[in-house]
């Protein structure tokens, strides 16, 4: 017999001890002597897609440097006492050059602030997060990285398009449609594969080139394509078509960025799986 009160036979407690959240003593403790930078992924737009850690850091920040793609609903979580610095970028129009953003993070941390560098999506997927923490590491500034739901995952889910599916796609490839030198010079032949989904970030301007190059390298003009604008938000728009006609459809709709382009047979599943926009009552369980 166990001496433990109310224990079942065998001495194992019938009620497991509760799991309690523990603050990481290295990265999360209040810092009175030197500042720190948290590189936080804000996800694709819906504030309910934030991680718990992202929410905690945003709501306790002293300074927030944010990109233009961070939704207003997420920015509203920043304390009113915090300084907010917009460092967003548009195509060929940067509020601050990247090297100045990097240095600003270093300077603020050295002044002792709890700094949140808030980025849309995930900081390490076409978010230039690696460049920023390289500078922080070289400067001896303490930092941490909080991943976010990347646009490919969030927008595809809210568009009713599974990026992989046993019957249609066994791999998925993330591609940037906007390169550092303002070109779209990509390994097009490698993209023309069976049972693969292609996801182009920042592909709105380059969409005609993307479609033309894929068809020119052997992909069927009938390959299904979807363009998602302002994904996961109440303003989400999804335009479906094929490589042959998607450009004309997008031009007719006057689509606004941010956008994501999904190419592959999985796009055809959207007609049955569009839980967010097409099913009765918009399919928003608990929304």
From TrEMBL:
Domain Tetrapyrrole methylase: 37-246
Stretch list, region Disordered: 1-36
UniProt xrefs under InterPro entries: 4pyrrol_Mease, 4pyrrol_Methylase_sf, 4pyrrole_Mease_sub1, 4pyrrole_Mease_sub2, CobA/CysG_C, Siro_Cobalamin_biosynth, Uropor_MeTrfase_CS
One Gene Ontology molecular-function label: oxidoreductase activity
Family listed: Belongs to the precorrin methyltransferase family.
Pathway as given in its UniProt record: Porphyrin-containing compound metabolism; siroheme biosynthesis; precorrin-2 from uroporphyrinogen III: step 1/1; Cofactor biosynthesis; adenosylcobalamin biosynthesis; precorrin-2 from uroporphyrinogen III: step 1/1
Superkingdom of origin: Bacteria
Keyword terms, alphabetized: Cobalamin biosynthesis, Lyase, Methyltransferase, Multifunctional enzyme, Oxidoreductase, Porphyrin biosynthesis, S-adenosyl-L-methionine, Transferase
Pfam families attached to this UniProt entry: TP_methylase
Biased composition annotated in UniProt, kind: Polar residues: 26-35
Catalytic EC class: transferase
Protein name (Swiss-Prot/TrEMBL): uroporphyrinogen-III C-methyltransferase
The protein's Enzyme Commission number: 2.1.1.107
CDD domains tied to this protein: SUMT
NCBIfam families: cobA_cysG_Cterm (TIGR01469), PRK06136.1 (NF004790)
Source species: Marinobacter salinus
GO-annotated biological processes: cobalamin biosynthetic process; methylation; siroheme biosynthetic process
């Amino acid at each position: 017999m166990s001496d433990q009160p109310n224990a079942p036979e065998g001495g194992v407690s019938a009620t497991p001890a509760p799991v309690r959240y523990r603050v990481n003593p290295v990265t999360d403790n209040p810092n009175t002597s030197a500042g720190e930078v948290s590189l936080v992924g804000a996800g694709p737009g819906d504030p309910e897609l934030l991680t718990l850690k992202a929410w905690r850091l945003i709501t306790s920040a002293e300074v927030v440097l944010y990109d233009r793609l961070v939704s207003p609903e997420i920015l509203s979580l920043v304390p009113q006492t915090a300084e907010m610095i917009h460092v967003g970028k548009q195509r060929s129009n940067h509020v601050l050059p990247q090297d100045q953003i990097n240095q600003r993070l270093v300077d603020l941390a050295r002044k002792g602030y709890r700094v949140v560098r808030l980025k849309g999506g995930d900081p390490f997927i076409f978010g230039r997060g690696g460049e920023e923490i390289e500078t922080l590491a070289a400067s001896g500034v303490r930092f941490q990285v909080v991943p976010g739901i990347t646009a490919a995952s969030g927008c595809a889910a809210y568009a009713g398009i599974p990026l992989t599916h046993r019957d249609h796609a066994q791999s998925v490839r993330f591609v940037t449609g906007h390169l550092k030198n303002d070109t779209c010079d990509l390994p097009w032949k490698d993209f023309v594969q069976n049972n693969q989904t292609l996801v182009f970030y920042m592909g709105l301007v380059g969409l005609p080139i993307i479609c033309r190059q894929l068809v020119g390298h052997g992909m069927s003009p009938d390959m299904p394509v979807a363009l998602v604008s302002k994904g996961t938000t109440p303003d989400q728009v999804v335009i479906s078509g094929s490589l042959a006609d998607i450009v004309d459809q997008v031009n007719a709709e006057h689509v606004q960025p941010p956008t994501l382009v999904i190419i592959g047979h999985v796009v055809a599943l959207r007609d049955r799986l569009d839980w967010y926009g097409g099913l009765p009552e918009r399919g928003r369980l608990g929304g």
